[in-house]
Amino acid sequence: MHYENHKTVVEGLEERISTIRLSLDYDKKIADRDGLQELMNSADFWNNPDEAQKTINSFKLIKAQVDPLENVISRLEDASLGLELAREEGDGELLEEA
Question: How does pLDDT run across 21-37, given as a tens digit for each residue?
Answer without folding.
Answer: 999 999 999 999 999 99
